[in-house]
Amino acid sequence: MTIFRKALCTFAFATLAIGTIAAAPQKAAATEQDTLVVGTMWEALPLAMQPRRSRFFNESEILDTLVKLDYDLNTVPGLATSWERISPTVWHFNLRENVVFHDGTKLDAGAVKFSLERVIALLPYAADLLNIKQMSATAPLVLEIETNEPFAALPNQLTDAITGIYAKASFNDAGEFVKPVGTGPWKFEEYRKQDRTIVTRFDGYWGEKPALSKVEYRFIPDHNSRTLALEADEVDFIDNMLPSDVARLSRDENFKVYSKPIAGLYYGAFNAGDKSPLSDVRIRQAVNALVDRDLIVKGALDGIGEPAWEFFGPQFDWAPKADAPFKLDTGLATSLLNDAGYQQNDGKWEKDGKPLTLRILSYSSRTEMPAITEALAALLNQNGIATDVQMYTWEGMLDLVKRGEYDISVVFWTPEMTGHPDLHLKSQFHSKAGLNYQFWNNAGFDEAVDTGRTLSPGAEKDEAYRRAMNILHDDAPIIPLVHKVSVGASAKNVEGYRIHPSGFFYDFKSVSKD
């Protein structure tokens, strides 16, 4: 594991890449030629229909969505071949002909309506995401969707994995989810708890058939162990690698290493409520001005990541930007802290004799998260702001966050995942959002986001989201830290793999083994 150590006498960081102390692993029997074995950080949980885990159905392509995203995050046909906005609140989606589910039943507008209604009923997040008032099958292959308000973001939201289309056989008579039955190129075959999930090729798939017969997703949560499994020929492909492993495998001709910026952001969410000193916007702005994101990427991540001085990744032209990104400015930070009543005493910021101390929470399951969190704390400490860092499971951290018992929670989200800004801005930062645990609300931001989601592409939409991003920047309820660079590796005989910028799509149907 790469350990991030605080530098007490300088403003630099030292990282230690600690390799395995065991002997080199013994070579296991090679994987079968028609099977791709994938070592994953997350357990697939194909029998659980929860927001994060349900992404597996899209990652693995058990399910199709009505609309898909290409490798530039443009919307392209999926189960819907085309779509049209009939009125500000009504859309028509024309469905693909001759599509069948894995159980042999036919896909039509009635089946899609049933699936989306089940998803909305079982997952409240989906209701907010889709904003649907009602649906009707106006023809066998035409689905009409009426939204609660003008909602231009609907096609993009229908690319989200949570909107994958399920056959009725996916649910029991009580309407409860039992297993994923979709229309994708792979069908669910087997699940072994805390071990692996297996999918097999669906020869009735409407598109180009996969080259391989089977994909096996093995749950290997330890980051070192995934790489060791690849080196031992126990798996063909791994993702979410440690930075030290990326450098080492890149030098080994027996492996291919993949690296690409994707739709992912590590950021600190500030507690803007009364329990935190970050309720003062000046403190939030000062923290943003003190933290050197370039140093976090270089020192904590061995350069694997992009410094985040703004919320959306710079590689996405459609993503809205503030007029000016955050920047490193210690002079500005000093002025802001002084205005807020703080003074430096022996290099430490204090007010009324009490040090400014921030409680930083995060979770350790993501590869880069501990290093990024410690880097943030080290930079604040070096600039006179004391920190108390505590690492939890995701669920443990979230429980404290919901109660407001934190100052900064370091999290990872994929704000560009659907190719539209509405997904994250509405669901995370709007004052009425179910996932807004920051006790932050801004009427101007709400108005800009509520307006932007109604508008088709053009100058008016761009202006609405520009206003939203300027408020997000000026009121600073967050500190962007690192735009994610996805890294993975495979055996040298794996062909055709490409990293998809959404971060939630493997496209293994295009992969073969020579």
What does this structure look like?
Keywords: Signal, Transport. InterPro entries: Peptide/Ni-bd, SBP_5, SBP_5_dom. Residues 75-431 form the Solute-binding protein family domain. This protein is 26% helix and 26% strand. The protein is an alpha+beta fold and 514 residues long. The strands form six sheets. Strands 3, 10, 11, 12, 13, 14, 15, 19, 20, 21 and 22 form an eleven-stranded mixed beta sheet that branches. A hairpin with a 2-residue loop joins β8 and β9 (142-147). α13 packs antiparallel against α14. The longest helix has 17 residues, at 459-475. It starts with a strand and ends with a strand. The model is unreliable at 1-29 (pLDDT under 50).
Produce the secondary structure layout.
Layout lengths: L1 E4 L8 E4 L17 E6 L14 H5 L7 E3 L5 E3 L2 E8 L2 E6 L13 H14 L1 H7 L1 E8 L2 E6 L6 H4 L28 E7 L3 E6 L12 E6 L3 H9 L5 E3 L3 H8 L4 E16 L10 H10 L2 H8 L5 E2 L22 H10 L3 E3 L2 E4 L2 E2 L1 E7 L5 H14 L3 E7 L1 H9 L5 E6 L8 H8 L13 H10 L6 H17 L2 E14 L2 E2 L16 E2 L1
Parallel strand pairs: 3-12, 3-13, 19-20, 19-21
Antiparallel strand pairs: 1-2, 4-5, 6-7, 7-9, 8-9, 10-11, 11-12, 13-22, 14-21, 14-22, 15-22, 16-17, 17-18, 23-24
Helix pairs in contact: 2-3, 7-9, 8-10, 12-13, 13-14
Organism: Thalassospira permensis NBRC 106175
Subcellular location: Periplasm
Main location: periplasm
